[in-house]
Amino acid sequence: MLTVTDILPDSIAEELKIQTGSVLLTINGEAIEDIFDYRFLIEEEYVKLEIKNPSGEIDIYEIEKDLDEEMGLEFDNGMLGEYRRCSNSCIFCFIDQMPGGMRDTLYFKDDDSRLSFMQGNYITLTNMKDKDIDRIIRYNMSPINISVHTTDPQLRCTMLNNRFAGEKLKYIDRLFEAGCRMNAQIVLCRGINDGEMLRKTISDLGRYAPVMQSLSVVPVGLTKYREGLYPLEPVTEEDASAVIDMVEEFQKQFMNEKGIHFVHASDEFYLLAGRPLPEEDRYDGYLQIENGVGMLRLLREEFTAALKEFTGALEQEDVPSGPADRKITIATGKLAYDTLKELIQTARDRLAEAGVAGILPEVKCRVIRNDFFGERITVSGLICGRDIIDQLKGQELGQELLLPINMMRSGEEYFLDDVTVKQLEKELNVKAVIVPADGESLLMALMGREIETGGRQIYEQTDCCHSGQA
After folding, report:
1. What are the backbone angles phi and psi of residue 160, rounded to the nearest 5°?
2. Which residues, at least 6 apart from 253, have a Cβ–Cβ distance to it below 8 Å?
3. Mean pLDDT of the 277-286 span
4. Which residues contact 154 (CB under 8 A, 6 or more apart)?
5. What's the predicted TM-score (pTM) here?
6. What average pLDDT does range 330-356 have in this prediction?
7. Residue 1: its pLDDT value, please?
8. Residue 294 carries which DSSP code?
9. Which of 227, 328, 348, 470 has its CA 20 to 30 A from that of 315?
10. How far apart are CA 183 and CA 175, in angstroms?
11. Sequence-separated (6 or more) residues with CB below 8 Å from residue 391
């Protein structure tokens, strides 16, 4: 059921005098569970609404309208109903590795196909039934992002600590047969689903391409809070090289057979192995960028393109000839540090070639060690405010401290540990500039130009399979 919170002017709902506070019960006799039911059923030319008005009476409205004409009904924030909790106890679950005392939302594990469709969350399929798959197919809720980890049924039961995890793989077949687009991921655990088991999983899932658009392999994230949990070891440089070799071997095969590269190793594997990132065209359109696949390559491409446009436009601007009087500091995680240093040097070189090297401020790039979760966590998306404060306090930071937006909770200005941006600014005595995750925004922030606050940003991920963004 959905509660009406607003009626749009000059709409069918206004003409029918439907009241705010009314509850939509059924459309054409079908019960309304959430906004997806409403959106799908309301598209018909003839609709019959059953609505309980604020006085408790049931009103029936029979409406003839254009096929895609909107009703003009707005609903409350509970339009999805209750989120589905994860029914697994994955051996690699990041949420199980967090300390106590954090905000409640960070401990909620969702496994909801609707959030997969709307926000990109990964689901395991373990709490789904046939009727849920029917609904996904009927409403064409795709792409659906699936945490597979292994196609070996028994091993999947072990990794997810769920006796139904193996048999639920059959739902991938149903989605494939219905033509529902999918993306999949493997969280690689050393000695468990790597080696020949990884080869089997990639080969098995490759049969679904190109309906399954992509498959990412990401290394398990291990915090220092693992007492009493399944013994896992971090991925080594040798492991990373082996994964890359296997992935690139399969990419050639899939490109020849399917016309897409399909499987991708996350950026972290390439950095850990000390290997160059793949070329842009090997990412098939960056389908899994929020999963850390191709994020650094895209940042480089965007930054380089923006720099070319910027230096070209300088000829038409009144460019200051003296040295820049700005000094700024960039705070980042270990994973993105070398890339940022390289981009800053690229900007310096290009501006020097254009004869305007002096407009680039003095830039210091600082790696923030993750003391909160442990030094094995190297992505900037899991850096907490207190670590930034403790490691930068008392240092000369210049006029501005640039922070990537993925350090912030989505839509908010505070970190995972609830330290606010204002608190950080006060303790460090510096202005904090939150920089969107695209290359153009990074360049504009370096140059002191106005930037938009949008751009790519990771949602507050509650899926137990996610380990953060670079």
Report:
1. -95, -5
2. 206
3. 96
4. 166
5. 0.82
6. 93
7. 72
8. S
9. 328
10. 11
11. 366, 368, 369
What pLDDT is stored for residue 466 in this prediction?
41
Structure tokens at 259: 């016309």
Type of residue at 391:
Q
Across-strand partners of 265? 217
Mean pLDDT of 310-323: 66
Task: Answer whether residue 117 shows pLDDT above 50.
Answer: no
Which amino acid is it at 143?
A: P
- What is the average pLDDT across 407-428? 88
At residue 98, the 3 state secondary structure works out as: coil
Helix residue spans in 393-433 (DSSP H): 421-428
State the Cα–Cα distance between residues 103 and 409, nearest whole angstrom. Answer: 12
**Residue 426 tokens, joined:** 């006060």
**What gap in Å lies between CA 407 and CA 384, rounded to an integer?**
7
The pLDDT assigned to 82 comes to 54
Q: Are 43 and 148 in contact (CB under 8 A)?
A: no
Q: Which string of b and e fits 230-264 if b means at least 16 CB within 10 Å?
A: bebeebeeebbbbbbebbbebbebbeeeeebbbbb
Separation CA 321–CA 436 (nearest Å): 29
Q: Does 31 score more than 80 pLDDT?
A: yes
Beta bridge partners of 357: none
The CA–CA distances, whole Å, from 264 to 85, 175, 244, 381 equal 28, 22, 9, 21
In whole angstroms, what is the distance from residue 11 CA to residue 7 CA? Answer: 8
SS3 27: strand
Task: Enter the tokens of residue 147.
Answer: 């945490």
User: Is there a contact between 10 and 77 (Cβ–Cβ < 8 Å)?
Assistant: no
Alpha helices in 259-383 (DSSP H): 267-273, 295-313, 334-353
Cα–Cα dist 100/102, whole Å: 6
Range in 56-60, 300-304, 340-344, 351-355 with the lowest mean pLDDT: 351-355
What span, in angstroms and rounded, lies between the C-alpha atoms of 26 and 60?
Answer: 10
Q: What distance in Å separates the CA atoms of residue 81 and residue 323, rounded to the nearest whole number? A: 57
Residue 121: both structure tokens together: 């969350």
Q: Are strands 182-188 and 144-147 parallel, antiparallel or unpaired?
A: parallel
Rounded CA gap, 285 and 290, in Å?
13
| pLDDT attached to residue 468 | 44
Distances (CA, A) of 463 to 86, 212, 362: 8, 20, 40
**Does residue 414 contact residue 421 with C-beta atoms inside 8 Å?**
yes
